[in-house]
Design a protein that fits this description.
Layout: E1 2-5, H1 10-31, H2 43-48, E2 52-58, E3 60-70, E4 73-81, H3 90-101, E5 106-112, H4 116-124, E6 128-136, E7 139-147
Parallel strand pairs: 4-5
Antiparallel strand pairs: 1-2, 2-3, 3-4, 5-7, 6-7
Length: about 150
């Protein structure tokens, strides 16, 4: 089941944080740096976030996607899947849900340049690579765009 998450509720933010940290630790290994900002977030930081969060549940939270709306542009901020639930199609379901609910919008998303699974996922939905950029010292990302 996919539903909106109320990240301001402590219990919800704790569940999000509990899967965000191990998921981003894996990305940190892929890109060779633990300086990824979400790794430094606390439960309170998640509660204060102004992103919109959508979660995927099967008995418990298995993953979530977050975004901000900027006019006709949807900026995907994060896609987080519990590592115990990798390769089950959850990321694809969350991306598809977002695309379906914002038809006619443009989408942008960035991921670690070395995060091949994420890059393949976005490409499978028709996202095209725009550019590679250094998000922080020695942290290289790829930005994608989709006109839906």
């Amino acid at each position: 089941m996919i539903q909106k998450l109320d990240n301001q509720k402590e219990q919800v933010a704790k569940a999000m944080w509990a899967i965000q940290i191990p998921a981003y630790l894996i990305e940190a290994e892929l890109i060779g740096s633990k300086e990824i900002p979400p790794l430094k977030e606390s439960v309170e930081d998640i509660q204060k976030s102004d992103e919109t969060f959508i979660g995927f549940f099967e008995e418990e939270l298995k993953g979530f996607i977050s975004y901000k709306i900027e006019g006709e542009l949807i900026d995907i901020y994060r896609l987080v899947i519990n590592p115990n639930s990798f390769r089950q199609g959850i990321g694809g379901k969350l991306v598809a849900f977002l695309l379906e609910n914002f038809k006619g919008h443009e989408f942008i998303v960035s991921t670690g340049q070395a995060n091949i699974p994420a890059k393949k996922l976005y490409a499978s939905f028709g996202f095209v690579e725009l550019r590679n950029f250094e998000a922080a010292p020695n942290i290289w990302c790829t930005e994608f765009k989709l006109i839906n």
